[in-house]
Amino acid sequence: MNISGHSVEKLVDPFGLLSGDRYEFFLDLEVDEEDELYSDKGVGLRVLFVVDNDVMKISNYHFYEKETEEVLDFELEEDEEQLVFDYCKDHYLED
Question: What total of structural domains would you count in the chain?
């Protein structure tokens, strides 16, 4: 799995109930044809990334098929989750 691009948007908490800032990432993924996650319709990853003072974390994520936006029932492996976390940490200020 390789991250080939993204879009990011800072989410607004209209009631001020949540601490910190939340960013919604839509990551474009390159997935090897041999991988069970592969789809010829393209695969993306939606990530909810939280920044609260000095604490950063992935709050939620899901894979989806890009052409149909159907949610895919897969989980990130530990090394993939670290890759996604590092990517979001490096790009969240680009909104």
Answer: 1
